[in-house]
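Let us work through a complete example step by step.
Step 1: write down the sequence.
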Amino acid sequence: MKKIIILILFATMWLVGTVYAINIDKEEMSIGGIQIGSSLDYVEQIYGQPVNKQTSIDNNGIIDNYNNLLVITASKGSETTFVNSIICREGNLSTPSGFAVGTPFTNVIAKYPKGSILTEERAKRMVYSYQSNYTYYSYHCMYHWSGYNAIDCYMIFAVDQKGIIQEIQCKGSVVCVD
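Step 2: predict the structure and record it as tokens.
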């Protein structure tokens, strides 16, 4: 009986730890000064015109590509176009805590518990350009900003076999009320 109670207690602690391990602060949902929900005009003021700009088939989405080192996707609102994902492969850009491409993933773990590891199937659905030689760690954040909602936001770190961050992605569903 004692072994069963210890096993149940251990399993409960592991499950609770797993749930909390995926949370990340909303202030962290920014790379290179760009946040989920920033206007695309703001991005272009900071980084200039992209090398490649694409519009979605329905004409409501935009992809700004800066040499594949920084890729921004955005959705059109009634007055403004809002960023809904940031894909960064550039080592000179970082999150507010200094997490950047080329730095050890242990820096992230020092501040936040290890995120959920995405399965290959889920990574292929969630990641902008999936690579099988990376492990993808996902963190989750939900928050509300004045003027619009950003819900179900994720920060995903692509980490190589040496434990070095190779890519950081912020993704969010932005609902515009402007």
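Step 3: interpret the result. Helices lie at 2-21, 40-47, 106-111, 120-126.
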